[in-house]
Amino acid sequence: MQSIEEFLVSGIFTFMLIFTRFGTAMMVMPGIGDSFVPTNIRLLIVLALSFVLTPVMVPFMPEQVPALPLLFFLIIMEGVVGFFMGVMARIFMTALDVAGMMISNASGMANAQVFNPTLATQGSTVGAFLSVTGVVLLFATNMHHLLIYGLVESYHLFPVGAIPDTGGMAQLVIRAFSTSFLTGFQIAIPFTIVGMMLFIGMGVLSRLMPQVQVFILILPVQIMLALLTLSLVFSAAMLFWLGKFEEGMTFFLLQGG
Predict the structure, then answer these.
(1) Which long-range contacts (CB under 8 A, 24 or more apart) does 159-164 make?
(2) pLDDT on residue 163
(3) 144, 32 in Cβ contact below 8 A?
(4) Could you say which of 68, 154, 194, 244 has the lowest number of CB atoms within 10 Å?
(5) Cα–Cα distance, 151 to 82 (Å, whole number)
């Protein structure tokens, strides 16, 4: 039987480790960790999750509270693991920004830069639109539950107190980057094909009428065709990305199974 003092100490120790991993991940992962979400809201969400999960996560925690140097080491390792989990989810999110940049390059809107709130940096107009829509879909389809579930299951993949396998983490990051870039490219394929056909036609027209500035006159048509193509494939593209996001996160979670 534990005394009240031992129970409180072990409970605070467990809560602190859970809060470190979840808090670091929540500050990076898409949706909750975006720049337009106030910091106090994120803090309250992490506090609530840590408080609820503390009784559940007790079996994954060390039985004894370690000495102060080892305690600092555990906190640092939990922060590293949480940051890695958040970065993995964020990488899958960047597929939309990659697709938006490719679409902008193919439609002549690459110079139109706006602030992308999901990445907290400047980006293409189409990329910002797709990224914000992606965050809305994550919450509308309850995909954010998968992110929270991934953090809970991460205690199987990265046990508390164990030094993370940096080689395996690097391989997962590389695979996530390649998958994200491929997904963005696949979303932008219709726009690339339309743009290529338009440029071929402009090239033929410029050879037939060299005195006409075809590439300047055709720019409004290029933008109009891109917007028309976007209106036709937008829903399919977002559903395709949502499926790829779920596949990527599920594959990542299965590594700890």
Answers:
(1) 159/60, 160/17, 160/60, 160/61, 160/62, 160/74, 160/77, 160/78, 161/62, 161/74, 161/77, 162/77, 163/77, 164/77, 164/80, 164/81, 164/84
(2) 76
(3) yes
(4) 68
(5) 8
Residue closest to 160 by CA, chosen among 253, 10, 58: 58
User: How big is the chain, counted in residues?
Assistant: 257
- In a 3-state reduction of DSSP, which class is residue 213? coil
Tokens matching residue 91: 């990488």
Prediction pTM value: 0.79
Q: Is the pLDDT of residue 227 over 60?
A: yes
Compute the distance between CA of residue 37 and CA of residue 127 in angstroms, rounded to an integer.
Answer: 19
Model pLDDT, residue 7: 58
